[in-house]
Amino acid sequence: MRYEREFSVKKTLYKDNINKKVSGVCGGIAKYYGLPRLGVRIATVAAMFMFPMVVGVAYIVAAILVPNRY
Q1: CA separation (Å) from 49 to 33, 35, 43, 52, 67?
Q2: Cα–Cα separations (whole angstroms), residue 32 to 2, 16, 26, 36, 52
């Protein structure tokens, strides 16, 4: 017996090249989770002040590894 979910939607994380400010990572994360882009950007900047090395490295890695949508 095989169980297949027909109702599920496949979501993929992409960089948002239309609404990007730096590389599109925050816009892509906001679109993926259904959050406001400005809120994700503010949270990223706030996290950058609290944990600059960790967030900076994570942002650079995400900018390199997350594919472009268009």
Answers
A1: 23, 21, 10, 6, 26
A2: 29, 10, 10, 10, 24
Backbone angles phi, psi at 68, to 5 degrees: -80, 145
Burial of 55 per CB tally in 10 Å (0-12, 13-18, 19+): middle
Lookup: tokens for 70: 């268009």
Report residue 44 CA to chain centroid gap: 11
Judge contact between 41 and 26, C-beta under 8 A: yes
In this prediction the pTM is: 0.77
Q: Is residue 10 pLDDT above 90, yes or no?
A: no
Structure tokens at 51: 């944990």
